[in-house]
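Dear Dr. L.,

I hope this message finds you well. Following up on our conversation about the binding site, I have prepared a predicted three-dimensional model of the protein together with phosphoric acid mono(formamide)ester. For your records, I am including the exact sequence and ligand specification that went into the calculation, followed by the structure tokens. Please feel free to forward this to your student if that is useful.
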Amino acid sequence: MRDFISMLDITKEELKDLLKLTETLKEKQKKGEIFEPLKGKTLALIFEKPSTRTRVSFEVGVIQLGGHGIYMDTRSSQLGRGEPIKDTARVLSRYVDGIVIRTFKQERIVELGRYSKVPVINALSNEEHPCQILADLFTIKEYCRDFKGLKVAFLGDGNNVCNSWLIGAAMTGINFYAATPQGYEPSEFYIKKAEEIAKTTSAEIVITNDPVEAVKEANIVYTDVWASMGQEEETEKRREIFMPYQVNSELLKHAKPDVLFMHCLPAHRGEEVTEDVIESCRSIVWDQAENRLHTQKALLTMLIR
Ligand code: CP
Ligand code: NVA
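The resulting structure of the complex is given below.
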């Protein structure tokens, strides 16, 4: 693995190693042990969309690993004035040891990776959110130990998070059911890739428009915002279309009695999830958010040389 632009960039074995390393790094941090493999290294952190978790977990993570991060946004850099991403890639590669980028089109990150001489990490694009899925898988491992046989139901928009989840589930053998309204299914490309990978792990990949079918006997119910960053003007329209996919206590009655609730956050109470569900003892969203830090530290340790 040279870059982490897509969940497709990591092999099953590397993913296993990363989750193992995460466990070690989390333990070290809890014990206050110093581990600084990034001493003297610098990362550029480019954010062309807002962020709380991803930005802070990368900034804190690189500091804990002994390195340094430089935050860049569109407005205060030449990116906002139209400097091509391929030029930015070549210039930043002369200064830094890695580039983390959150942007709109996945192709922009792919182009950055093509021209960069240092590793590039996708911190969310319209098509994928691979760093999120690393933290989600680690959190599930902490709670459930084993992936095989688990059923994860993803409810709502077949968006970036859902696309990356398809690959993550296929690689780990998790049975993944995505229930979305018609016309909001995940991308065909990721469905096909997930189905190919699933043949090697026996994961079940099911795309449905029926929320009850997805949630039935699920171990984990997962959701995300209905209108992602960049889709703000569709908020009203989507609220109506997505309401049958809201994660509420009625819907959760179809899941296993000990079902866990997950959400990448930020959450919109009363929309994709109700207040009682996200605040219940079944909700593991804060562990999930914390694990962004630990999994990304493992990723940086593996990628940055
Ligand atoms: N889950 C996630 O990526 O959150 P942020 O948008 O706050 O980074
Ligand atoms: N699908 C959401 C994820 C936010 C972390 C978005 O792209 O806005």
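In brief: The radius of gyration is 19 Å.

With kind regards,
A. P.
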